[in-house]
Amino acid sequence: MLLASLGVGGAKIDLVLEQEEVRMGETITGEIHLKGGDVDQSIRGFSVDFCVESQLAGIEIKECVCSIPVTDEAITLKAGEERTYPFSFTCPEFLPFSYNLDKGGIWSFDDTQQQVTNTKFYFKTNLDIALAKDVKDRDTINVLPAGIVKNFLEACWRLGFFLRGESYWGERYGKAQSFHLVPRGWMRGKFDEIKFVYIPSRTKSEMEVGFEVDRSTTGIKGVLYDKLDMDEVKGGHIFSKEDLATVEKAEETIKYFILEKAKKLKGVNLY
Questions:
Q1: CA-CA distance, 124 to 106, in Å (whole number)?
Q2: Strand 41-56 and strand 59-71: pairing?
Q3: From CA 244, how far away is CA 256, in angstroms rounded?
Q4: Exposed, middle or buried, 71 (CB in 10 Å: 0-12/13-18/19+)?
Q5: What is the pLDDT of residues 119-152, one digit of tens each?
Q6: Measuring CA to CA, which residue among 208, 176, 215, 177 is closest to residue 194?
Q7: Which of 168, 170, 160 is nearest to 194 (CA)?
Q8: Residue 135: what pLDDT?
Q9: Is residue 145 classed as helix, strand or coil in its secondary structure?
Q10: Can you give the pTM of this predicted structure?
């Protein structure tokens, strides 16, 4: 009994999901498997936390998005006994997106060149055991974009950009998400990367972004361009819901937007 109270030979809990990814606003289902250990134990209930973590300039971001109560029923779990509980969760909308190569293809067109996001979502299952060490289980899941953010990102992939870096800033820093895109087809060699930052919770009717278009320059001209800030263009822009109504419309809108901003980079020949 002492070992079980320390978590050795005690009850186990395992959340088994039917999908490895979920799109914002949609529902994911699965089962929670509970298995007794070497001795009978009193279970006071268990719940599942839906969490997000990321890295921002070396700062670790960890937040609980929401808690999902499964049961607060007190039970005595017999040694070796197995129980199964249904699990269902509707993913909130307007979250930062996440992408993990281990989970397979998502919404990119060429997974081999995509980088994983710093941002990761996971379910943390908590088993509350009386007079013993609580048991936890962690299951990572991709959270796919929806609505105009989905259209924006898919349009960027279609234009030949791939993801170089990403961070979710967390509640402390305004719940923004930033991501860097690098051209590999159209606009390749014209500039090095374009950075976007936006607030996911504010994308219901429009997508307001901060942006920075960068171009690496070398030599004496490079030093001059850098000193005069002629190797970058930055600012803010609002993409309306109509601008991003479909992937095709978003592609057209973003292409025009990038062409207009890239014109301001010194020494860039767009044609």
A1: 23
A2: antiparallel
A3: 13
A4: middle
A5: 999 999 988 886 445 567 889 999 999 999 999 9
A6: 215
A7: 160
A8: 64
A9: coil
A10: 0.84
Determine the Cα–Cα distance for residues 28 and 89; give it in Å rounded to an integer.
Answer: 5
Q: Which tokens go with 261? A: 């901003």
Burial 196-215 (b: 16+ CB within 10 A, else e): bbbbbeebeeebebebbbbb
Rounded-to-integer distance, Cα 152 and Cα 30, Å = 30
Residue with tokens 């930052």: 197
DSSP string over 39-107: S-EEEEEEEEEEEEEEEETTEEEEEEEEEEEEE---EEE-TT-EEEEEEEEEPPSSPPP---GGG---S
Rounded CA separation 90/27 (Å):
4
Dist CA 26 CA 9 (whole Å) = 37
Structure tokens at 61: 């971001």
Cα-based distances in Å from 5 to 39, 129, 147? 10, 9, 47
